[in-house]
Amino acid sequence: MAIVIPGKRYGKRLQHSKVFGHGALGHKSTFADLNVTPLVDMFVILVLFLIANFSATGEILSQSKDIQLPEAANTDELKLAPVVMVSQSEVIVSGASIGRVEDLSREDYMNIPVLEEKLRDMKKQFEDLHNAANDQGAFTGDVNIQADKQVQFRIIKKVLFSCAAAGYQNIAFATMAAGSADQAAKKPETAMR
After folding, report:
1. Cβ atoms within 10 A of the Cβ of 176, count?
2. What are the pLDDT digits (tens) for 31-62?
3. pTM for the complete prediction?
4. Which of 11, 50, 94, 151 has the most other CB atoms within 10 Å of its CB?
5. 116 and 146 share a domain?
6. Secondary structure E strands in the chain
């Protein structure tokens, strides 16, 4: 039998501890391997999830609660273009207010000069941007009109004339898909040309 020095004896778990046992015996390696495979797998899944949920077309129209769109049966998808919103109270182009419908209905002019000027500025910005990028993409003249179904036709006629005078001849009207209310609520981005 071996001779053992008297004193406290620590269990196997604490024997390699620096405080209780003989610390020199229990040094662990400071080098740790990092397994990259699960990390890469997680990022691949994350990228695929984001690609699947990303809408390439984006939101073309923002549905305003002031505007009730008319229904149409034969429709096409809208293209990304400047949006002219005509509610019962005012006319808005790309978020900027052009004027009140009451004031526009009193005027005898066929066009809306402020709307025409704003659309010409947007056309110039488009052309300058494409010229600076050496892009040969020609200006197509697309514009989306989002008009309330209760607006008088003479206001719509003035908006159409102003758009055509500013160089926007490809006019698309935003409509709701004809059918059930659920289907119409899901598809406000249809257009009638």
Report:
1. 22
2. 667 788 888 999 999 998 888 777 655 556 66
3. 0.60
4. 151
5. yes
6. 71-72, 76-77, 83-86, 90-93, 96-100, 142-147, 170-177, 190-192
Does residue 136 have a pLDDT over 90?
no
| Full domain range(s) for residue 128 | 71-192
Work out the average pLDDT over 4-9.
72
Q: Could you tell me if 185 and 90 lie in one domain?
A: yes
User: What is the per-residue pLDDT across 104-125, written as a single tens digit (0 to 9) for each?
Assistant: 888 888 888 888 999 999 989 8
Clarify whether residues 43 and 119 are in a common domain: no
CB under 8 Å to 22, separation ≥6 — which residues? Answer: 15, 16
Interval 137-149 mean pLDDT: 85
Count of structural domains within the chain: 2
Query: Long-range contacts: 160-165, Cβ < 8 Å, 24+?
Result: 161/110, 161/111, 162/111, 162/112, 162/113, 162/115, 162/116, 162/119, 163/84, 163/115, 163/119, 165/111, 165/116
Strand intervals (E) in 21-169:
71-72, 76-77, 83-86, 90-93, 96-100, 142-147
Distances (CA, A) of 82 to 40, 61, 73, 134, 141: 41, 10, 24, 22, 10
Inside any domain, residue 17: no
Is residue 137 located within the same domain as residue 179?
A: yes
Tell me the two tokens of residue 2. 């071996």
